[in-house]
């Protein structure tokens, strides 16, 4: 099948593209700089600058992973708009592609798996969070809500839409660990604030497997929590990571220091949700790395 991927050259997208290629699928990848990303993608990938450039090559499925890093820079009002636009605009283009394919060719992609994030729920304290939990209204929630609403618009063109609310993605060479490892390896790691905030996480291999699972199951649509079944608090994450590295973790970062340094963006570090993948588990998805110690042992071993 032909699979259109946005964000295909990113940390998750690269691994997804390799898995799709290994399974015999044809890759249609969107990138503003095709020549720069070509060597990151499997040979034979069809890379074009715009979603709408694929009108003449109708995809059978779409995976939407595009979006500027939410933690890339301090949240000014202008940056907030950039974060929203980088997600909503390209998602809107995907819906437009579906509309054009329906009107010109009488066919649309069967499915779109569209990324969202754990930020959909906002700060949930220590309550257990499933896909049915009402969100706390704050910027991260509003960002994810607009992103999901944009993707769900494809449903009116007969596309099955699955929304994957992704936790912290862990693996070697990138993702959340890339910034964490240097201070922890030097023994300078520590919890953020009081460390009681939950950190939903998922190994990159499990995330890619969940995306493939949702692509292949015609009965699955709507929101799914893309995180391992055993989330941990920030303090637990700190302890387990330090133990895996054989280093102390005695340098906590006070909340006031994070708030001063990052402003509103510090909420990403100081709040969280005890997010559980209830719908994936109910559908029969099996995690290869269900616990953090097993995931980190595989990554760091």
TrEMBL record:
<dbReference type="Pfam" id="PF01370">
    <property type="entry name" value="Epimerase"/>
</dbReference>
<dbReference type="Pfam" id="PF08338">
    <property type="entry name" value="DUF1731"/>
</dbReference>
<comment type="similarity">
    <text>Belongs to the NAD(P)-dependent epimerase/dehydratase family. SDR39U1 subfamily.</text>
</comment>
<dbReference type="InterPro" id="IPR036291">
    <property type="entry name" value="NAD(P)-bd_dom_sf"/>
</dbReference>
<dbReference type="InterPro" id="IPR013549">
    <property type="entry name" value="DUF1731"/>
</dbReference>
<protein>
    <submittedName>
        <fullName>TIGR01777 family oxidoreductase</fullName>
    </submittedName>
</protein>
<feature type="domain" description="DUF1731">
    <location>
        <begin position="253"/>
        <end position="299"/>
    </location>
</feature>
<dbReference type="InterPro" id="IPR001509">
    <property type="entry name" value="Epimerase_deHydtase"/>
</dbReference>
<dbReference type="InterPro" id="IPR010099">
    <property type="entry name" value="SDR39U1"/>
</dbReference>
<feature type="domain" description="NAD-dependent epimerase/dehydratase">
    <location>
        <begin position="3"/>
        <end position="220"/>
    </location>
</feature>
């Amino acid at each position: 099948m032909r699979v259109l991927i946005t964000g295909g050259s990113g940390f998750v997208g690269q691994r997804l593209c390799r898995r799709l290629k290994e399974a015999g699928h044809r890759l249609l990848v969107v990138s503003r700089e095709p020549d720069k990303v070509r060597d990151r993608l499997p040979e034979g990938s069809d890379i074009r600058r715009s979603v709408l450039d694929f009108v003449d090559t109708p995809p059978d499925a779409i995976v939407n992973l595009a979006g500027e890093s939410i933690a890339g820079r301090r949240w000014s009002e202008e940056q907030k708009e950039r974060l929203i636009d980088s997600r909503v605009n390209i998602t809107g283009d995907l819906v437009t592609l579906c509309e054009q394919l329906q009107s010109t060719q009488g066919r649309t992609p069967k499915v779109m798996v569209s990324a969202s994030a754990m930020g959909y729920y906002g700060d949930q304290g220590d309550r257990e969070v499933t896909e049915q939990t009402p969100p706390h209204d704050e910027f991260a929630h509003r960002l994810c809500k607009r992103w999901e609403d944009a993707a769900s618009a494809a449903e009116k063109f007969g596309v099955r839409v699955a929304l994957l609310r992704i936790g912290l993605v862990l693996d070697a060479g990138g993702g959340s660990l890339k910034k964490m490892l240097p201070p922890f390896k030097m023994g300078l790691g520590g919890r953020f604030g009081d460390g009681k905030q939950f950190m939903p996480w998922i190994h990159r291999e499990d995330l890619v497997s969940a995306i493939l699972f949702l692509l292949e199951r015609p009965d699955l649509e709507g929101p799914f929590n893309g995180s391992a079944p055993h989330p941990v608090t920030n303090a637990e994450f700190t302890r387990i990571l330090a133990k895996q590295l054989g280093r102390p973790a005695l340098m906590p970062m006070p909340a006031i220091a994070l708030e001063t340094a990052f402003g509103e963006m510090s909420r990403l570090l100081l709040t969280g949700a005890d997010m559980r993948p209830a719908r994936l588990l109910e559908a029969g998805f099996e995690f290869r790395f269900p616990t953090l110690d097993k995931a980190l042992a595989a990554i760091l071993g």
